[in-house]
Amino acid sequence: MTIALGKFTKDENDLFDIMDDWLRRDRFVFVGWSGLLLFPCAYFALGGWFTGQSGWFFAPSFGVAAIFRFIRFFQGFHNWTLNPFHMMGVAGVLGAALLCAIHGATVENTLFEDGDGANTFRAFNPTQAEETYSMVTANRFWSQIFGVAFSNKRWLHFFMLFVPVTGLWMSALGVVGLALNLHAYDFVYQEIRAAEDPEFETFYTKNILLNEGIRSWMKAQD
């Protein structure tokens, strides 16, 4: 059974036709970089870290050693690696890398020569009637592998744009949240159970012990 993601092309202009025309006018630069545009906001929140943390000592400084010290502080005192926003950021960036690798390999392996001037990308040759890779072949291949395939290129490219941008937004929002000391999503019940039962051990409790070690090491260093 094959599940098609997206709408099949129509004669009339739908939402994705409008988006496609909008993206072709180079406005995709803002859409694709919107996640990166939030990082200055996140860094501004870190710049104001000393206000929320009651001291200049906790503010990020310049230099390699200072940045690594702040990363250790970020993990030791705020448990950043198990933060849901950090997890979504990692999934977004690595997922986008996987999607790009799959997409590139699929295009390269479905190429066919259309005349003497074969070109993978239509944007480089506006007079070319069709692209020189087979969307039908790629669709059939991934339908047989996963049972899921995109019905058109617009949905595919939109998804490849949506995944990394969303991941960057989530990661930046997580940094801003920690700057405001938001810890409502910590797994406190595991800490309580670990305190009551010394034999209770999970990845989270091991991470808590690691954070305690980081705090103890930083206390001795600072």
TrEMBL record:
Coiled coil: none
Location(s), subcellular: Membrane
Membrane topology: Multi-pass membrane protein
Gene Ontology terms, MF aspect: chlorophyll binding; metal ion binding; oxidoreductase activity
Residues annotated as transmembrane: 28-50, 56-74, 86-105, 155-180
Matches recorded under Pfam families: Photo_RC (PF00124)
SUPFAM superfamilies per UniProt: Bacterial photosystem II reaction centre, L and M subunits
GO-annotated cellular components: chloroplast thylakoid membrane; photosystem II
Keyword Lipid metabolism: no
Record keywords, A-Z: Acetylation, Chlorophyll, Chromophore, Electron transport, Iron, Magnesium, Membrane, Metal-binding, Oxidoreductase, Phosphoprotein, Photosynthesis, Photosystem II, Plastid, Thylakoid, Transmembrane, Transmembrane helix, Transport
One Gene Ontology term from the biological process aspect of the record: photosynthetic electron transport in photosystem II
Annotated family: Belongs to the reaction center PufL/M/PsbA/D family.
Name of this chain's protein: Photosystem II D2 protein
Species this chain originates from: Malus baccata (Siberian crab apple)
